[in-house]
UniProtKB/TrEMBL annotation:
It comes from the Bacteria. This is Uncharacterized conserved protein YndB, AHSA1/START domain. Pfam families: AHSA1 (PF08327). Belongs to the AHA1 family. InterPro entries: ASHA1/2-like_C, START-like_dom_sf. Gene3D superfamilies: 3.30.530.20. Residues 26-134 form the Activator of Hsp90 ATPase homologue 1/2-like C-terminal domain.
Amino acid sequence: MAVDLTGSYLTLDDGRPAVRFSRAYDHPAERVWHFVTDPGELARWFPCRAEPELRPGGTVRFGDDPGLPPGRVLAVDPPRRLSFAWGGDELRFALDPAGTDRTRLTFTDVLDTPEAAARNGAGWEVCLAALDALARGEHPAGPPAGPTPLWRAYYEGYLAAGVPSGAPVPGLDRP
């Protein structure tokens, strides 16, 4: 299955590796902000349940398991900027005007390790496709979990593009 990769691998000015995606939505920033901050909307596209407390230093609860370690909100400027820690990664959401009632979302996953780039890039492709559907007014149930055939196609695409790989893949690699 051929796929179009929408993410790019880069090294940030501070030397950290990242994968970055950009989307334009026919919605004002306030609506796109709701997509990326409201737990009900996040449940339709984010890889797990996420409940951010929208203040600097606030917690982000992930999943339904109370044993999962929470993340921390690093920066928030509604409705334009949000970043939070998730495990060793930092997720950044930047919303900028892209015309009348149109918003560009730039999503950056600042990686804990470069070896996670292909794995995470493939995962975010699947998740962001669900966000795209939500923005079109569809009702996605949420991205599928695990290494689905679509995820594998994206992963193979990132490998073929020379994006760093080697991080374990839950559901595929055994400890």
